[in-house]
Design brief:
The complex is a heterodimer of chains A (143) and B (492). Chain A has 143 residues and is mainly α. Chain A has one domain. Chain A has six helices and two strands; from the N terminus they run H-H-H-H-H-E-E-H. A two-stranded antiparallel ribbon of chain A has the order 1-2. Chain A is flat. The two termini of chain A are 23 Å apart. Chain B has a domain of 216 residues. Chain B starts with 5 loop residues before the first helix and ends in a 5-residue tail after the last helix. Chains A and B meet through helix 4 and helix 5 of A and helix 1 of B.
Chain lengths: 143, 492
């Protein structure tokens, strides 16, 4: 990229974090309202793609919490592991436990489903970024 | 605790291990993880098989949601038998894989290779264990997507085209299956297979159900490489890494056959299929498959491709068994699922060992190598005899039951086709044996050492299994006979 679009670069940094924040919000409200891990993960991928287009793949990857492949692996592991505690309490796999947490202004329903959703979020973010960065990056291997 | 979750653990352990394997460094560590997982799964599969051997049923409700609303894993002897084949073949392929994969696959891809292998095995196990037809579709996609990746890792560039071809065909098959599932869901409002078999008879006359059946049968037929939908198979088996050819040839099409059995006999039942030309279609395509694919096999110059065409022919035999829709026929089909896994596993392993030393699977390169690699050659001969159906080998047992089923229905022509198919198998097995043993070694003076033990031992284990199950058919035929009763809807 020879001419750097200054305005885009400046806004992209802010918009990136805004998009990540929105994705987290979508993730957290997902139990009883539209949202959840998959769609939140897609929003996060959109944020990563913005970074990749403006600043290049390396920087987009550095802005992610983990490299795409480990992130995917971590996500799948977390999602599956969320079903395991049920086994030890004698219930079938993926039976989830729920707790209500009083936040003062609202009650948040915390559950092991959240761990599942966070896993899906990480897996979607990782896997789609892996494709995206590999396609955008001419050098090839980004994993 | 383990016993009550046994079916679930068979699916969850490989699924948990797959991402871990992908992140492990080096070559041996990912292999060791995959090996351990496959052995644990094999042990669990044996245990599970012992639990349902008497015809009882294990039902497992995922997430505590009662069926038919939630996803149910429903294991009877049919699933347990097929799961045993899948886990057993994985457990025996992985020791074989180490050396052959180190040679065929770039080092940095090896952790991903084993991760994909575990996913593929997991998908195949999931297909067999689930009692929910949509969940079955999901596992089918897991196993298919991972097998596309595994095939594309083959050494030659043409592996990419082969994988792409399989990807297109496989996706069409999966889409057909999905459309069919969607239609029966629209008609009955349930996805649980046991529930479907209760609800479907009320709507058998509806055209939607007929359409759904057609879509599902064609979709599954693509996955099991039923003639003439087999075109993806020869390329995929030829260009895939040797260990993958062994595993897929022994399990992937077998699991698809299981799905076909389930759909035709349990979900739809013979009450429905006898009103449709399903049985005749299976018989016709089975006969054509046996004859045409065997002829094709004779003209192949590549050993892996030759065996791949032979696989299509063997699937023809299994379809004949399904087409007879009699207790004997389906027994033969179920027994042949098991025996064909053993014989094709052994044969592809032997050819893989030749490829390991020679670097090519082209038959002209094999001149005289049989005398330099006697153990590999011996395995190939014995596997070939089993493929032909010589008495004393596993192949004989399934052919015997198939011929009995044909005679029972006085289908003399089909009985003749089975015999002709065996004669054609003699021709193509001889074609390899002749070059390997009776041709003089190539004049380049190159000599090949015997294949390493890590390749020979799994190969010979399968060869010995071929002979053992040829002499003692109690386990296979006993399981198949119970399976026929459990599948339901088959006239005894």
């Amino acid at each position: 990229m020879t001419e750097r679009p200054l305005l885009l670069e400046y806004t992209a940094r802010m918009v990136y974090w805004l998009m990540i924040a929105v994705s987290l919000w979508i993730l957290l409200r997902g139990h009883n309202a539209p949202g959840g891990g998959f769609i939140a993960g897609l929003v996060a991928v959109a944020a990563t793609s913005l970074m990749a287009i403006v600043y290049g793949c390396d920087r987009a990857q550095r802005a992610m919490p983990l490299a795409p492949l480990p992130l995917t692996g971590f996500g799948i592991l977390l999602a599956l592991a969320s079903g395991v505690p049920a086994l030890f309490s004698g219930q079938p796999f993926l039976t989830h436990a729920w707790w209500n947490i009083d936040l003062g202004f609202t009650t948040y329903k915390l559950s092991t489903v959240l761990a599942f959703d966070v896993g899906v979020y990480a897996a979607v973010w990782g896997a789609f970024s892996l494709y995206l960065l590999a396609l955008l990056n001419d050098e090839g291997d980004t994993a | 605790m383990i016993e009550s979750h046994i079916s679930l653990l068979l699916v969850v352990i490989p699924l948990l291990a797959a991402p871990v394997t992908a992140l492990l460094p080096g070559v041996r560590l990912p292999w060791l993880t995959a090996l351990l997982v496959s052995w644990v799964c094999f042990a669990l599969a044996i245990w599970q098989f012992a639990l349902v051997m008497d015809g009882s049923v294990i039902s497992y409700e995922l997430g505590g949601w009662a069926p038919p609303w939630g996803i149910e894993y429903r294991i009877d002897i049919v699933n347990a038998f097929v799961a045993l084949i899948v886990a057993g073949m994985a457990a025996i392929t992985l020791p074989y894989a180490l050396r052959s994969v180190e040679q065929e696959i770039p080092k940095h891809q090896i952790p991903l290779f084993y991760s994909m292998f575990l996913l593929c095995m997991d998908g195949l196990l999931g297909i067999t264990l689930t009692g929910d037809i949509f969940n079955l579709f999901v596992f089918l996609e897991i196993s298919s997507l991972s097998s596309y990746t595994l095939i594309s890792m083959g050494r030659q560039r043409r592996a990419l085209t082969a994988a792409y071809q399989y990807l297109i065909m496989g996706t069409i098959g999966a889409t057909f299956l999905l459309i069919g599932i969607g239609l029966i869901y629209a008609e009955t409002g349930t996805l649980n297979m046991a529930d479907l078999s209760n609800r479907l008879p009320a709507v058998f006359s509806h055209h939607t159900v007929h359409t759904a059946f057609a879509f599902i049968v064609v979709g599954v037929a693509l996955k099991l490489a039923m003639f003439p939908l087999h075109l993806w198979l020869p390329n995929a088996y030829t260009y895939a890494p040797s260990a993958i050819t062994v595993f897929l040839a022994a399990t992937a099409t077998k699991v698809a056959v299981y799905v076909m059995l389930r759909v035709v006999f349990t979900v739809f039942s013979t009450g429905f299929t006898s009103d449709t030309p399903t049985d005749d279609m299976f018989l016709l395509l089975g006969v054509l498959g046996v004859l045409v694919a065997s002829f094709y096999a004779i003209y192949q110059g590549d050993a892996k491709r030759l065996l791949a065409y032979s696989s299509v022919a063997q699937i023809g035999y299994i379809l004949l068994g399904i087409g007879f829709a009699s207790a004997l026929g389906v027994t033969a089909a179920v027994v042949h699922i098991f025996n064909h896994a053993l014989m094709k596993g052994a044969l592809f392993m032997a050819v893989g060992a030749l490829v390991y030393r020679i670097g090519s699977s082209h038959i002209t390169q094999f001149s005289g190598v049989g005398r330099q690699m006697p153990w590999t050659f011996g395995a190939l001969v014995l596997g070939g005899l089993s493929l032909i159906g010589v008495p004393g080998t596993a192949g004989f047992i399934s052919k015997w039951y198939l011929v009995l089923a044909a005679i029972e229905q006085q289908a003399w022509l089909i009985a003749a086709v089975i015999l002709v198919g065996s004669l054609l198998a003699v021709v193509y097995v001889w074609k390899m044996v002749e070059v390997l043993y009776f041709r003089p070694a190539s004049d380049t003076g190159e000599t090949y050492r015997e294949a390493p033990l890590s390749l020979l031992v799994p190969t010979w284990l399968l060869v010995i299994a071929n002979i053992y199950f040829g002499l003692n058919a109690d386990l296979t035929v006993g399981a198949a006979t119970t399976a026929v009763q459990v599948l339901g809807g088959i006239p005894q």
